[in-house]
Amino acid sequence: QNVEAGEPLREAVFRGALSRLRPVLMTASIAALGLIPMLLATGVGSEVQRPLATVVVGGLASSTLLTLYVLPTLYGFFSRGVK
């Protein structure tokens, strides 16, 4: 939308990523905080819950980094020649 509005590509990508920063971080952090009881479980079934929670939290962290840093960078890189 920012590029279509005539903004320079680099600034448009930065503004787009910045506008998504708070919602993405809030969503991922709430999901990760919801898994804390599974990470700290010590009772029956915890041998299954802990690794599962670890993988899910790791996936949330990596997808958050991908969404906020890698995808805007790739968009800026691949859309340079497109007009």
Automatic annotation (TrEMBL):
What UniProt keywords are attached to this protein's entry? Membrane, Transmembrane, Transmembrane helix
SUPFAM superfamilies, from UniProt? Multidrug efflux transporter AcrB transmembrane domain
Gene Ontology MF: a single term: xenobiotic transmembrane transporter activity
Superkingdom, taxonomy of origin: Bacteria
Alphabetized InterPro entries for the sequence? Acrflvin-R (IPR001036)
Residue ranges annotated as transmembrane are 24-46, 52-78
One GO cellular component assignment for this chain's record is: plasma membrane
Full protein name: Efflux RND transporter permease subunit
Originating species: Thiolapillus brandeum
